[in-house]
């Protein structure tokens, strides 16, 4: 089963107020585990970067103006995610921004099935913090390599959180190393053992008959 862990960074909180997407990442999962394939891009939002937003993700307007517009990367992004399920933390936020960007260039909104890990976490841990950081700490997922928020690094962290939310990986059972087509499976030759006999021997039949003869008024004769 193919899924995509999706995350974005933006200039603010509300696309209805003119805020834009500045970074998109989609991490490919197969049977809930990362395959190593991903889509990632920075995007020129064609506007300034508020200080509050830059403090979160560290992306400045001068850095982003050297990157493509959303219109230039939209089809590549859509081709990568295809129609497969999306795994998103607080899906309403990210989908709202992506669909607003798609609407700007006259493309239909996303209709992929969505798994919202925020909803999953709130159901599993009611009354407790369900932020990505809090979940990483709960599941002992290392946050050390992340200095600021970023769509790619947060997507990788969310993939690990998602695995824990759905039950975790059994020790020593690493599906990530199994080839999708089964090419990694080793069909080594083994010694063939003879089939075990399934017919009772004459001695066993005689012993069974003697045992039945000792039973008074068996229920199968009533």
Question: Could you characterize the architecture of this molecule?
Answer:
The protein has one domain: 2-Layer Sandwich (Nucleotidyltransferase, domain 5), CATH 3.30.420.10. β4, α4 (91-104) and β5 (114-116) form a beta-alpha-beta unit. α5 (117-124) packs across α7. It has a five-stranded mixed β-sheet, with helices on both faces. The relative contact order is 0.15. The chain is 36% helix and 16% strand. By secondary structure, it is of the alpha/beta class.
Q: Which characteristics define this entry?
A:
8 helices; 36% helix; elongated; 222 residues; Nucleotidyltransferase, domain 5; alpha/beta
Brief summary of the model shown:
This protein is α/β, with parallel strands linked by helices. The chain contains eight helices and five strands; from the N terminus they run E-E-E-H-H-H-E-H-E-H-H-H-H. The protein is 36% helix and 16% strand.
